[in-house]
Amino acid sequence: MSSNPFETAVILDGIRRWVEIESPTERPDQVNKLADLVASGYRDLSATVERVAGRDGRGDHLVTRSSWGQGVPGILVLSHLDTVHPMGFIERLPFKVEGNRAFGPGIYDMKGGAYLAYHAFRQACADDVRPPLGITQLYVSDEETGSPTSRPLIEAEGRKAKYVLVTEPARDGGKIVTGRKGVARFDVFVKGTPAHAGARPEDGCSAIRELGNVIQTLEAMNDLKRRVTVNVGVVRGGTKPNVVAEDAYAEVDMRVPTMADADELVPKILGITSRTKGVSVKVAGELNRPPYEKSNAGAALYEHAKGLAAELGFKLLDVFSGGGSDGNFTAPHTATLDGLGVDGKGAHTHYEQLYISSIEPRARLLYRLYQTLQ
Prior knowledge:
Blueprint: H1 8-19, H2 28-40, E1 47-52, E2 61-66, E3 75-80, H3 89-92, E4 96-98, E5 101-103, H4 107-126, E6 135-140, H5 151-160, E7 163-166, E8 176-180, E9 182-191, H6 207-219, E10 229-237, E11 247-256, H7 259-270, E12 280-289, H8 296-312, E13 318-321, H9 327-330, E14 335-337, E15 344-345, E16 353-355, H10 359-372
Parallel strand pairs: 3-6, 3-7, 7-14, 8-13
Antiparallel strand pairs: 1-2, 2-6, 4-5, 5-16, 9-11, 9-12, 10-11, 15-16
Keywords: Hydrolase, Metal-binding, Zinc
Organism: Bradyrhizobium brasilense
């Protein structure tokens, strides 16, 4: 029997068990089935498990707390149990191993990383000496849809913590994430006047034509130098080709690197008005994930992790990501380090995979963070 508590084959087998329980966000029964398995893993550990009942069609959240260090600010580990893949996707992408790659739905984003954090905690519980700080692990059920039901819980736990570690996957060959764009979503509703497009076009006011004006206004807000992106991703409108469109609709995604950008651009988008008489434009939406900016505390946490990685024999680089995570909710007020999960590629795709060689060093890094943060 191996004396290595971070043996890759053992950890990979644990990841496989989590992956083989499909857990699409919109299937709370499946997410809860995975939550049952995760919770069972803490029964013999020095920890308590609190289950927060799901709502609004989402699954339960799990809050696990170490039996030590809970009276003062400690370490919060953020993970999510839900995936974007629909039920049955595992038939298309079954768990399998090919050389250095292991495949499966959600294996990279982020069941692999979530399991590493659990395994590292398990080892911390087995040690004779407890880590200096208490450890709280939060597993949420709705991150892939913006964390609408878990956000209050994430923010509350984040404000109580001294450090936040996020097990989202590593980037670009193992880089850690120290900054993310904030995310805003908007719905655009345009109301015009219908008319016969051939016989009486002058009686109508086209909602689709006005939506075209709105789209031009939104597209003009893109500024790649500032890393600001505005994308009109969904468009609908009209009823028939021979009818001047009465209604049109669009869904918009905006990403901003700083709160200053958000403060400038969110009101601009909400304030868009019609250029055409007889047509109304209404925009609804908000910033649903604040920007994760690299604070001094976050930078110090990264430098600490970088030093630990060097001791473990690998180089840890950091990167800024355009995608959002639950770390966006904690970074404004608590030192946060993201991208601590497995290395791999293909998140949300039919070839999603982790690199098996990343399992042991990334698990050891989480374990060393638990041991040394104080």
